[in-house]
Design a protein that fits this description.
Strand order of the largest sheet: 7-6-5-10-8-9
Order of helices and strands: EEHEHEHHEHEEEHEHEHEE
Largest sheet: 6 strands, mixed
Distance between the termini: 28 Å
Number of helices: 8
Shape: globular
Helix content: 25-40%
Structural class: alpha/beta
């Protein structure tokens, strides 16, 4: 069985682009209030996934409620397992969903669980996540200048914002290209329309970015809080070809975690959180 990729909300699940991509496991216990069921239900859900799949990656927003993150860590500690990776993602909601989809696509490849989990940080660098907003007055995820803040109160104002990989904010006028920095590679663009029409994103932005495919989806409920307004259209662009994703991850040097023994890429194990030792100390467990 491939490594399971679990998410903390149904809104973090995008449809599979093919029949080979495994579905995401949705932690029902992550729902707020009584619907979630508390720690006992979280323990049961994660234990079942570990028994079925061997290793489990739980993808959750870095901005998730602290109580949820604490519950996930408590479950990991209570189960005393090193087969559970908690992957906090510092992306807007739609970008987080797209990253989870990429991990699901790669889970059927020959990557070990440690490499797959630590690949999340690498793949996030190639995600372009942003939105067209009707106001930036309450936006705190991207730097907003005083001039843009003042113009945000004018009727009919709109702004194009890129949150990742590099923050960028542009005030819009007319139907011209928003002028956001484009990816340097072909992408698939996922678009979620909220209180603003999506035509500017699916039209001018998609043409300027040379997008191969535009996929509409439902706006996550968390997007309004993340972007500071309910008048928005959110978008995320990423590499669509699984063979390119595979080559990208395969090209990175692999190391062995000195603590749990799993393979990893980067500087930290996603399962036990142990940092990679200095070069002179590697290879000694």
């Amino acid at each position: 069985m491939p490594t399971a990729v679990a998410v903390t909300s149904p809104e973090l699940v995008l449809p599979s682009p093919d029949r080979h991509t495994p579905p995401a496991a949705i932690l029902q216990s992550a729902e707020p209030g009584e619907r979630g069921g508390g720690l006992d239900r979280t323990l049961a859900e994660i234990h079942t996934l570990v028994e079925q799949h061997g290793h489990v990656l739980v993808v959750h927003p870095a901005a998730a409620p602290p109580a949820l993150v604490h519950r996930l860590h408590a479950a990991r500690a209570a189960l005393e397992t090193d087969r559970l990776a908690l992957v906090g993602v510092d992306l807007p909601p739609l970008g987080t969903a797209l990253l989870a989809l990429q991990l699901r696509q790669l889970s059927i490849c020959d990557f070990s669980p440690g490499v797959l989990a630590s690949a999340a940080r690498l793949l996030a660098h190639y995600l372009h996540a942003g939105a067209v907003l009707g106001s930036v007055a309450r936006l705190d995820q991207v730097p907003v200048g005083l001039k843009a803040h003042a113009k945000s109160w004018l009727p009919g104002s709109q702004f194009a914002v890129l949150a990742r990989p590099e923050p960028q904010l542009v005030r819009l006028s007319g139907d011209q290209d928003p002028g956001l920095k484009a990816p340097g590679f072909p992408t698939r663009l996922v678009v979620a329309e909220g209180g603003l029409p999506a035509e500017r994103v699916t039209g001018a932005l998609a043409r300027a970015w040379h997008v191969r495919e535009v996929t509409p989806t439902k706006l996550p409920a968390a997007s309004a809080d993340w972007w500071g307004t309910s008048k928005l259209t959110e978008f995320a662009a990423a590499i669509p070809d699984i063979s390119v994703l595979y080559q990208l991850v395969s090209s990175v040097r692999r190391e062995e975690c000195h603590w749990c023994g799993l393979e990893l890429i980067g500087d930290r194990c996603a399962f036990c959180a142990a940092p990679l030792p200095p070069p002179g100390e590697r290879g000694r467990r």
